[in-house]
Amino acid sequence: MVNHEIKTMRFTKRDFAMMALGIVVYIVDVGADLWVASNYFHQAHYTWGTLTLITLLLSSVIVQIFSFTWFEEDNSEKLNWIFALHALQGGIFTRYWFALKYGYQAAFKLNSSGDTLIDGPTGIIHKRAIDAMADISMLRLFKAFLESTPQLLLQIYILMTSDISTFSQYASITMGFSSISCSTVDYQIALRKSLPDRNEFAGTFPKIVYLLYKLLTLTSWILSIALLTVLSTKCSIVLFAFLWVGGISWVLKQHTTFCKSKAKEIVYRIIVGIILIFTFFNIKGEKTKIPHYVYYGTRAFITIAIVCACLFWKSVFNGKIHLLAVIIVIVLMLILGIIFLIVYYTFLHPNIYCTQDVVDGTGSESEEICRIRGFLMH
C-alpha cells in the first residue's frame, strides 16, 4: 500500500548513533589507507604508495569542493574559516560537527522534552539535523565510489600480482568494504528521511537485503576487474573507458540539474559516470526496470567474458592466485547479488507517495527545495 500522507520529519536517537558510527568508520577508513601507503613507501614500493595517496587525495579534493559549494549555497556564516577548513581537507569533519550539534539537540533535548508536535522552532531543528545528515550521506557516497572502491581494486590487484601481503593491506580492504556498506545504506536512509513525500527506508530486513545486493554485485565486479587487470592492464583501461563513456552519455542525455553552477554540474556528471562503472543509480524521473535489465545484463555478460578469458589464458597467473576459487567466488556473488536485487525490488522496495519511481528528479513546485532531491536516487 502506498502511503499518501506526508510523513513527519523527525531526527531520532538511532539517527544520531548511526551518524556517530559513520564518522568513526570514515576516520578508520582514511587511517587504514594512510597506513598501507606509508608501509608501501617504507618497503620502497613507491608506485603503490603513490597510487594509494593519489586516489585518497583526489576523492578528498572533490568532496571538499562540493561541501564548500553547499555551504555557499546555504548562505552560511563565517565562510572564511569554513573555506580554510575545507582547504585543509577538513570539510567533512566540519559538516559532522554541525550535524552532530543539530542532531543532539533534535534527538536528545527536543525528543526528551515530550513534545509530540514537530512544527515551529522544534520542526526547524529536526529539519536542520536531517538536512545535515543528508549532505554528509551524499559526500560519503562520493567518497565510497571515488576512493574506497578504487582503493579496493588497487589493493586486491597488488595482492594478486606481488608477494606483498601485510596486515595493513587487509585492514584497508576490510575498511573499504565497511565504508561502502555504511555509505550506501546510510544514503538510502537519509534520502527517504529527508524527503517528506517518500516512505522511509524502514525495517532491518530490507536494509540487509539491499546491502547484500549492493555489496555482492560490487564485490563480484571488483574481483572481475582485478582479474582482467592482471591478465591485461590495457584491456582493463579500455573497458573502464568504454563503461565511463557509456555512463556519462546516459547522464548527459538526462540533463541533470543538481548544481547551480554549469562548471560544477559538468564535474558532477563526470563523477556520476564514474559511479556508474561500479554500481547502478537511476539519474532522473524515469522507470528503473529497463535500465536495471540493461545495466546488470551488461555486467553479467562482461563478467562471463572476463572469466572465460582468464580460464583460456590461465598460464598468465602463474599460480600466484587460486584462479578457480576466485572465479567461483565471482560467479556465486554475482548470482546471489542479482537474486537479492530481484527480491529487494519485488518485495521490499519502499513504496512512494508520488507516482514516479524513486529516482533523481524534482518535486512539485509547492515543495521546499531539498538538495538531495536532485542527487542520485533509487
Task: List low-pLDDT spans.
Answer: 1-6, 114-121, 352-368
Percent of residues in helices comes to: over 70%
Q: How many DSSP-defined strands? A: 0
Strand content: under 5%
Determine Rg (CA atoms, Å).
Answer: 21 Å
Mean pLDDT: 84
Global morphology: globular
First-to-last CA distance: 19 Å
Computed structural class: mainly alpha
Most strands sheet: none
Give the ordered list of helices and strands. HHHHHHHHHHH
Total number of helices: 11
Question: Could you describe the 3D structure shown?
Answer:
With 378 residues, the chain is an all-alpha fold. The chain contains 11 helices and no strands. The chain is globular, with a radius of gyration of 21 Å.
Mind sketching the topology for me?
Elements: H1 13-42, H2 46-73, H3 79-87, H4 91-112, H5 120-161, H6 167-194, H7 204-231, H8 233-254, H9 262-278, H10 289-312, H11 323-348
Helix pairs in contact: 1-2, 1-4, 1-5, 1-6, 2-3, 2-5, 4-5, 5-6, 5-7, 5-9, 6-7, 7-8, 7-10, 7-11, 8-9, 10-11
